[in-house]
Amino acid sequence: QVQLQESGPGLVKPSETLSLTCTVSGDSISNRRYYWVWIRQPPGKGLEWIASMYYSGSTYYNPSLKSRVTISVDTSKNQFSLRLSSVTAADTAVYYCAKQITGTTLDYFDYWGQGTLVTVSS
Amino acid sequence: DIVMTQSPDSLAVSLGERATVNCKSSQNVLYNSNNQSYLAWYQQRPGQPPKLLIYWASTRKSGVPDRFSGSGSGTDFTLTISSLQAEDVAVYYCQQYYGAPYTFGPGTKLEIK
Fold it and tell me: What is the pLDDT of residues A100-113, one digit of tens each?
């Protein structure tokens, strides 16, 4: 069974860049059946999809965040990463990494990490 | 973007009773080519990440108790818990994966009456 674990700073200053890494265990990040995903949830609020990435580099971004988001994959470490630039308090959230099933289309998110709270504050 | 709405916002049900959560999409999420609705349901217990319960609108993920069932097609969907257990206290989200950006409903909070 795959496991995902987020890591990174829990506090980021306004206007700086948020950087998180997701370490995947129990399966290969190069598995052609999966995309790798970032999703966030502001405290007490709902879920927002950020981006999905294939091991080869194919990427889909949420247009609302696209100008500030970069995701990348490191197959040698079985990790993928998120960078969100120019953060504000509105970016304070629990950030989840997840696995997305793909066949002929990108489908549902079947496994999620535990999440990491990132607070944007000076 | 496809907007997902859910009703009710919150729900209190007695143990052993049926709970029903509704979800509506602003656009049809049924692919005619495979006759599948691109709709999933997730359970989020307090302090936990979301957990996939149902995909393709009605397919239960392996290991999910059979008291959970999904139904619906096109734009209108329902999650039913046939006999509420204490561990089912959670927020339930529907989500469309018909197309990016993938969007979630606002959630329905389920409590014990």
Answer: 999 888 899 999 99
